[in-house]
Amino acid sequence: MSEIPIEDIQGDVLTSYRFPKDVEHFHIFHIEDRNSEQLFAVFLILKRVAVMPVPKTSPIFFNIAFSKEGIDALGLKHSDLGDKHFRDGQFADATTVLGDPFVKKNGKKLPDWEDRFVELELAHKIHGIILVAGEANSVQQHSKEIIQALAGAASILYYLEGATLLKRDNEHFGW
What we know:
Order of helices and strands: EHEHHHEEHEHE
CATH class of the domain at 19-81 and 112-132 and 140-163: Alpha Beta
GO molecular function, one term: peroxidase activity
Structural class: alpha+beta
InterPro entries: Dimeric_a/b-barrel, DyP_N
Protein name: Peroxidase, putative
Pfam families: DyP_N
Domain DyP dimeric alpha+beta barrel: 8-163
């Protein structure tokens, strides 16, 4: 059996993290004002949580990712990344790389994804996603802080909440 390159593994799946991941919140956002101080407040929240002493806080995991459109909205050059898959977007790779099934919707052949997500992706509205994971109360609190911090700078277009399976010994991946 061959080893999977570590850079191809989703970080919070690795056992070295070993933190409770009871709940995950996914906040898909659209940047309204790239120069807004509120946009950078999110990074300050992430930094503050990252340096909090472990005994005084519930373990929490944050991740933020930007789409090509999000990089463009920030005034950066996505071409500097040199990544064809990033440039072309996930629709281009839905079948060939991701292996996702397609269905016919409104006469169009589209990936069999959540309707709202497909709609936002086709309109090139998704600029990024913020993932908050950990224990339920902590995730709820930190998600609320992030949404408040984004006010005026970005809008949440789509929200998805995931939770672990009931039996603690079950493996789970994705939501």
